[in-house]
């Protein structure tokens, strides 16, 4: 799954560079992205010096040194693996004023058209940290959000935190509408834990109660599932 998703991602990046001379990408984190990033950084033919990267989401009040920091995740699994990026813009969740951090990021990303966004689906159906009921209307690229209990339990269950109390209750997230503005979206989902969310997002009506269901309305979105995450789909949709 991860190798196939990375292969398509590489083709999109290379095509954008060939067409425009540069590419802008958005990267997610989490367990579903481990293999995708592993294969992407090793893919031949990508001129990373022509790529600008944006960060999908980050906890509020967390330093980069924390094991659960998504900045730490991206530095270790991507940025240090592809030295020479044209630019990368990480979310500083440790800033005292997260609204100011959103404003800073919004000013930067407003100057870019995103060619590719790599995303996943949460156990509660969230897209980035847009938990249900997600805001489908805001046009702000980055927003301050509250994390629901299901989302926080997922983060603990994946081993990023030892207790639920340690999981932050707020985050900075790329908004749904900003994600949907990407020219291409590649969504990768693994593990049996995500099977119900995948089923609901694909087979139930599009709704902000199932935030990732909105991906069905994107003209260039590819979904990569493993056997476990696809295990509850109706036979005609696997």
The CATH architecture can be named as: 3-Layer(aba) Sandwich
Q: Strand sequence of the main sheet, in spatial order? A: 4-2-1-5-8-9
- CATH topology label: Rossmann fold
| Quaternary structure state of the chains depicted | single chain
Q: Mean pLDDT score, rounded?
A: 94
> What is the first-to-last residue Cα distance?
14 Å
Helix content: 25-40%
- Largest sheet properties: 6 strands, parallel
Fraction in beta strands: 15-25%
Q: Can you give a write-up of this model?
A:
- This protein is α/β, with parallel strands linked by helices.
- The chain has a single domain, classed as 3-Layer(aba) Sandwich (Rossmann fold).
- Helices cover 30% and strands 17% of the residues.
- The chain has helices spanning 2-20, 34-41, 70-79, 98-109, 149-157, 176-180, 195-203; strands at 23-27, 51-55, 57-59, 87-89, 116-119, 142-146, 170-174, 184-189, 221-225.
- The strands form 2 sheets. It has a 6-stranded parallel beta sheet, with helices on both faces. A 3-stranded antiparallel beta sheet has the order 3-7-6.
- Helix 1 packs across helix 2.
- The longest helix has 19 residues, at 2-20.
- The radius of gyration is 17 Å and the shape is globular.
């Amino acid at each position: 799954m991860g190798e196939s998703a990375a292969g398509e991602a590489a083709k999109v990046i290379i095509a954008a560079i060939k067409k425009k001379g540069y590419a802008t990408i958005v990267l997610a984190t989490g367990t579903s992205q481990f293999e995708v990033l592993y294969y992407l950084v090793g893919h031949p033919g990508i001129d990373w010096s022509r790529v600008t990267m944006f960060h999908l989401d980050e906890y509020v009040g967390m330093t980069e040194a924390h094991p659960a920091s998504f900045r730490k995740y991206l530095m270790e699994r991507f940025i240090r693996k592809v030295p020479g990026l044209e630019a990368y813009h990480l979310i500083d969740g440790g800033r005292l004023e997260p609204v100011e951090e959103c404003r800073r990021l919004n000013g930067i990303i407003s100057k870019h058209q995103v060619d590719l966004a790599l995303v996943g689906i949460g156990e509660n159906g969230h897209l980035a940290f847009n938990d249900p009921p997600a805001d489908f209307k805001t046009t702000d690229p980055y927003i301050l959000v509250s994390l629901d209990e299901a989302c926080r339990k997922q983060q603990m269950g994946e081993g990023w935190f030892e207790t639920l109390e340690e999981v932050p209750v707020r985050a900075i997230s790329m908004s749904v509408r900003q994600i949907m503005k990407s020219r291409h979206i590649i969504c990768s989902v693994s593990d049996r834990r995500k099977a119900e969310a995948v089923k609901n997002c694909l087979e139930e009506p599009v709704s902000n109660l199932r935030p990732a269901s909105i991906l069905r309305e994107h003209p260039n979105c590819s979904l990569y599932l493993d056997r476990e995450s696809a295990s509850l789909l109706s036979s005609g949709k696997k």
